[in-house]
Amino acid sequence: MSPLILALMLLAPAQDLHPATPAESGAFEGTWRLVSDSRPEKFFGVQERRLTVENGAWNEWWDGKRKKVYVQFEAAKPWPVIRRMISLNTPDRQGGGIGAGGNMSVNLWGIYRLEGNTLTLALVRSDPERPLPDSFEPNDHVAIEVWQRDTKP
């Protein structure tokens, strides 16, 4: 196999993404709070973000308002891949989006590292022109989020 073909295969977008199964989500069970975000501005102006994973269902809470999160995983080297689609539709925003029905969402994909009660995400906006991050270093296109799992009973 030529080095060029091998390089193109390594750079190709992930093709084996699949919805998170309860077994995969099991390691993420609990309530998480965002403790660090490399973005210079607040994500959508949100002051407090929390993430809950319960029985395989993912939800993100922005200033106390629930946002449904759809999660997909792929086993990849050197880091596993995660894709998050956060639905921006809430009762107070129904019909307020662009396009039919007002469905709005934020699509992010990247790599993750789960170490005990710390989840680190390196994320980019989903775009075929933008490759997956290959490290946990922030730059103009890559945001680093660090989440800490609440360990209080």
How would you characterize the overall build of this protein?
With 153 residues, the protein is mainly beta. It starts with a helix and ends with a strand. The radius of gyration is 16 Å and the shape is globular. The protein has helices spanning 3-11, 22-25, and strands at 18-19, 30-37, 49-54, 57-62, 65-74, 81-87, 105-115, 118-125, 143-149. An 8-stranded antiparallel beta barrel has the order 2-3-4-5-6-7-8-9. Helix content is 8%, strand content 42%. The protein has 2 helices and 9 strands; from the N terminus they run H-E-H-E-E-E-E-E-E-E-E.
How do the strands and helices of this protein lay out in sequence?
Blueprint: H1 3-11, E1 18-19, H2 22-25, E2 30-37, E3 49-54, E4 57-62, E5 65-74, E6 81-87, E7 105-115, E8 118-125, E9 143-149
Antiparallel strand pairs: 1-5, 2-3, 2-9, 3-4, 4-5, 5-6, 6-7, 7-8, 8-9
Task: Provide a concise account of the structure shown.
This protein has two helices and nine strands. By secondary structure, the chain is mainly beta.
Observed structural traits:
single chain; 153 residues; mainly beta; 9 strands
Radius of gyration: 16 Å
The portion of residues forming beta strands comes to 35-45%
Residues in helices, as a percent range: under 10%
Distance N to C terminus = 54 Å
Mean pLDDT: 75
Q: Give the biggest beta sheet.
A: 8 strands, antiparallel, barrel
Number of helix segments? 2
Q: Which structural class best describes the helix and strand composition?
A: mainly beta
As laid out across the biggest beta sheet, the strand order is 2-3-4-5-6-7-8-9
Task: Categorize the overall geometry.
Answer: globular
The count of strands amounts to: 9
The topology string of helices and strands comes to: HEHEEEEEEEE
Uncertain residue ranges: 1-15, 91-101
